[in-house]
Amino acid sequence: MKLTKQQTSVLIGTILGDGFLQKTGEKNARLRLEHSLKQKDYVFWKGSIFGRLFQGKPNYLDRVHPKTRATYSYCRWQSDATPVLGKWRKYFYPNGKKIIPNDIGNFLTEPITLAVWYMDDGYFNKIDRNSYIYLGRITRDEVDILQKAIRKNFEIEATIYDKKNKGFALFFGALETKKLQTLIRPFIVPSLQYKLFDPVTT
Length: 202
Prior knowledge:
Elements: H1 5-16, E1 20-23, E2 29-36, H2 40-49, E3 59-64, E4 71-78, H3 83-92, H4 111-121, E5 122-125, E6 130-136, H5 140-154, E7 159-162, E8 168-172, H6 174-184
Antiparallel strand pairs: 1-2, 2-4, 3-4, 5-6, 6-8, 7-8
Helix pairs in contact: 1-4
């Protein structure tokens, strides 16, 4: 099968965020979606984008935090394995570990891609009206690539924050947050609306 433009855009945002491409054989891979049970509408929305790739049913699981012992409920949905996802697996995981490719700017071009990435890893500070996209433990060079891609393709300026043991984050001040959220708002699912400013009060 061949992915549509929309499917490719959502896939890129998902991999940049919380999604995982699992290798299944020499050429194939499958996409794993996993989010809090409170955000199961987001899992279903993503799965619906990919149509027949997600023919199975989601699993509802509990996870116990190793330190706090608190129980977290989440929803996991895995796609069928396919060579087209295998190709993207090789692009993002050339040596088995996820990287940010040098030419990611060629694919990080659509607002829906940015929206999915933000829904996965974004945070909105309602008091200061600024926002972050958390990147985790990637290299500084990879952060630079993402920062430049956002600047070039969306004309949105992000500041790089080094959160030390927590990895890097992209910070968007109040003005840049408004530009970002105006762009991605049409794609934000109901359970993640809390990551947006209220247009009535801003």
